[in-house]
Design a protein that fits this description.
Blueprint (H helix, E strand, L loop, with lengths): L3 E5 L3 H12 L3 E6 L3 H11 L4 E2 L11 E4 L6 H7 L6 E4 L14 E6 L15 E7 L3 H11 L2 E4 L2 H27 L11 H14 L8 H4 L2 H10 L4 H14 L4
Parallel strand pairs: 1-2, 1-4, 2-3, 4-5, 5-6, 7-8
Antiparallel strand pairs: 6-7
């Protein structure tokens, strides 16, 4: 059973990953990051016994090495590691197992956004796993220590899930920002809260295919034309509004 873990990367994922590993009874024996300042911050926050600024400084006692680095850095970091029997793990939704450079290990992908302002509890998250090198059982056991909700998912299907997450979360945040820009100066974004919470509740209770509302689905051309007139000084947003309306209702 995996008990000792080294983590490489000191960003938003690592800020939540390390305390979740510790809560699950695992020992984080080392943190590696190019940023000495980040190492000091993490060391103080999570009582990590060993740190290093070089991947080549990996300690040999870890049974797993978790690459909590940006997607584009995974392959390079994996290649820079010294020979090790530890399992390599990355958490990217859009990066294949090939990035691990043929070393035994896999993917544990938490479907969540992370910030440095708070620690996300992995016990409430779905984790999606894919393993290579005959280590599926070990990877699954590790994931189950972090969350009761674990799904096997290969690279191709994980990429589609990641695309869906970008559409549902990242693009919706852009819409929130655009909505905020339409507010009169005496109002803040909080006035949308009741509306958005009701919508999210309906989405999960009824499923998105049954919760579309607004002028496009009603075929309300009068309101749509008023909105397009308001957007005449912003042709890019005006065109986006029109395209989305036609996706909602192709008969417009």
């Amino acid at each position: 059973m995996i008990q000792k873990v080294s983590v490489i990367g000191a960003g938003r994922l690592a800020w939540s990953l390390i305390p979740n590993l510790q809560r699950a009874g695992l020992e984080v024996v080392q943190l590696i990051s190019r940023s000495a300042a980040a190492l000091e911050e993490f060391e103080a926050a999570w009582n990590i016994p060993h740190t290093s600024t070089r991947a080549a400084g990996l300690l040999p006692e870890a049974a797993a090495v978790w690459l909590a680095v940006p997607d584009q850095a995974i392959a390079g970091v994996a290649a820079a590691l010294p020979p090790t029997d530890a399992l390599l793990i990355h958490s990217s939704g859009s990066t294949s197992l090939a990035a691990l450079q043929g070393r035994p290990g896999g993917v544990i992908y938490p479907l969540q956004i992370f910030t440095r302002q708070r620690v996300t509890d992995f016990r409430s998250l779905p984790l999606f796993i894919e393993a290579s090198g005959g280590v599926s059982a070990a990877l699954h056991a590790l994931a189950r220590r972090l969350s009761p909700t674990v799904y096997p998912l290969d690279t191709a299907r994980r990429l589609k899930l990641h695309l869906g997450a970008v559409l549902a979360c990242n693009f919706s945040n852009l819409m929130f920002r655009l909505a905020a820009e339409q507010l009169p100066p005496n109002l803040d974004f909080g006035v949308y809260e009741a509306l958005l919470r009701e919508h999210i509740d309906n989405v999960f209770a009824l499923q998105p295919a049954h919760t579309q509302t607004g002028p496009a689905i009603r075929g309300d051309l009068n309101t749509i034309h008023k909105h397009l007139e308001l957007l005449k000084e912003n042709p890019q947003l005006q065109q986006l509004y029109l395209q989305l309306s036609r996706m909602i209702n192709p008969e417009l």
